[in-house]
Write a structure and sequence with these properties.
- It is built from five helices and no strands.
- With about 120 residues, it is mostly helical.
- The chain has one domain: Ribosomal protein L20, C-terminal domain (c-terminal domain of poly(a) binding protein), CATH 1.10.1900.
- Helix 1 runs parallel beside helix 2 and helix 2 packs across helix 4.
- The relative contact order is 0.08.
Length: about 120
């Protein structure tokens, strides 16, 4: 029985892997076995960092809110607690944007929450 190679599918598979490795340095973009490993690793980093990005942004928003809140004589935790008690549903992303771009509006929010 003759040996079967399935050249079309294997060539397409190699081409797909090497095209995903385009731009990688040295043999990482040229040699199939090396490229395969680095594509897998890149996928792991991408998967992990899509989740990490959400944590990083929340951390940044909290730092911005805390810095702005301290300028008005309160802290982040006291401000968030006061907003919850007053049933103000404003998320951290919007609060951080107010603190950075519209300090007057942020001052009004702090004054309303702490009053």
């Amino acid at each position: 029985m003759p040996r079967s190679q399935n050249k079309v599918a294997s060539h397409r598979r190699r081409k797909r892997i090497l095209s995903r490795a385009k731009g990688y340095w040295g043999t990482r973009s040229k040699v199939l076995t090396v490229a395969k490993h680095h594509i897998d690793k890149a996928g792991q980093h991408a998967y992990r960092d899509r989740r990490k990005k959400k944590r990083d942004y929340r951390q940044l928003w909290i730092a911005r809110i805390n810095a702005a809140a301290r300028m008005y004589g309160t802290t982040y935790s006291r401000l968030i607690n006061a907003l919850h008690k007053k049933s103000v549903d404003i998320n951290r992303k919007v609060l951080a944007d107010l603190a950075a771009r519209h300090p007057g509006a942020f001052a009004e929010v702090v004054k309303f929450a702490t009053a």
